[in-house]
Amino acid sequence: MSTKAYAAFNAVDPLGPHTIERRNLDVNDVFIKIDYCGVCHSDLHTAQSDWGPTNYPAVPGHEIVGRVEAVGSEVTKYKVGDLVGVGCLVESCKHCHSCDEDLEQYCENGFTGTYNSKNSKYGGITYGGYSENIVVHEDFVLSVPTNLPLDAVAPLLCAGITTWSPLRHWNVKKGDKVGIIGLGGLGHMGVKFAKAMGAHVVMITTSESKGADAMKLGADEVLISKDPEQMKQHNYSFDFLLNTIPVAHDVNPYLLLLKLDKTMCMVGAIEPLPGVHGGVLINKRRNIAGSLIGGIKETQEMLDFCGEHNIVSDVEVIRMNEINEAYVRMQNSDVKYRFVIDLKTL
Ligand code: NAP
Ligand code: ZN
């Protein structure tokens, strides 16, 4: 069916209105009318072809929340009227080792992303949440807690799970000293989750002006990464670091913050990391690792946890036609702390 959307048409021009085709409902499909869609830095990377050539026109958006308006004949998990979400994944092979372990994001045959992905089953390219509606197989639809403000739930579908998953995987617990690097969409959720897990949370930021906010979000301390003296005082003291910086950067000053055997997990810079100093790793048996979003089961666990603990994102709701301005602000690290599009304005 013909659907109104907003798209990037090339790597340089502003996004603008566009019309896309959504497939007719297959037997296991859920038809979702989208209420809100968060704006992830990955949307901007994709719009600009930062990660290789994008398939234009591209409709970004993988922090989707809305209501079920129709279901296919064999859908059992959802019914019309349910509050639901869609994150970064809309399909995977469902039979490889990773899929068997509920780690569809590491599907050995390649998962289908919510946007700018080849749609192996139905052909064409997937289109994301900067649109009126979306059609998704029920296995990739999440149930959204009904006690939370819906606009502030949207970013949980990517920023939430991308920070939740590594904090859980590296078993962050009460008393650990955890550093969250970069206070943007991902970082602010990282602070909230690490705090909820009982950690002593240090916000590691380049922006002095964000310090007071970081404390309000739950950080116990703020460390200004541009100040080498401050950094030095924290050397060899962290149990875990979550690095959300969206571009390549010198990772060594951060690695030096880790204690013996501890790990810095990269989630931001999906590109070569220049000049990792072997000595910094070798001398304290330190680890550098990476993590990609999270599986569907884990995403549901995270959403349920947020419902129980009243955790949502801090959002600035925008109109669809304000997206280009939002991208410029995101590029300048001027987001508090996630833009969310109100799709009524499309
Ligand atoms: P964001 O809202 O723009 O936040 C990024 C923050 O990083 C900025 O607010 C800034 O924080 C800091 N920063 C920016 N440029 C920097 C630089 N040159 N040096 C040091 N710090 C810098 O972005 P986001 O939506 O949180 O996404 C972060 C990255 O994660 C993006 O690259 C995105 O594509 C990626 N991502 C990865 C996954 C995954 O599965 N691994 C999932 C979603 C997103 P301060 O002002 O506090 O320094
Ligand atoms: Zn994202």
List the ligand species.
NADP nicotinamide-adenine-dinucleotide phosphate, zinc ion
Helix percent reads 10-25%
What would CATH call the class of the largest domain? Alpha Beta
Radius of gyration: 20 Å
Shape: globular
Mean pLDDT metric: 97
Structural write-up:
The chain has 2 domains: 2-158 and 313-345, Quinone Oxidoreductase, Chain A, domain 1, CATH 3.90.180; 160-290, NAD(P)-binding Rossmann-like Domain (Rossmann fold), CATH 3.40.50. The chain contains 11 helices and 17 strands. The chain has helices at 41-47, 97-100, 150-153, 159-169, 185-196, 211-217, 228-233, 252-255, 278-282, 296-309, 323-331, and strands at 2-7, 16-21, 29-38, 64-71, 83-86, 89-91, 112-113, 133-137, 142-143, 177-181, 200-205, 221-224, 238-243, 258-266, 287-290, 315-318, 338-342. Strands 3, 4, 5, 8, 9, 16 and 17 form a 7-stranded mixed sheet that branches. Helix 4 (159-169) packs across helix 5. The protein is globular and about 60 Å long.
Keywords:
346 residues, alpha/beta, Quinone Oxidoreductase, Chain A, domain 1, Rossmann fold, 2 domains, 26% strand, binds NADP nicotinamide-adenine-dinucleotide phosphate, binds zinc ion
Write a concise synopsis of the structure shown:
Its cofactor is Zn(2+). The protein has 346 residues and is of the alpha/beta class.
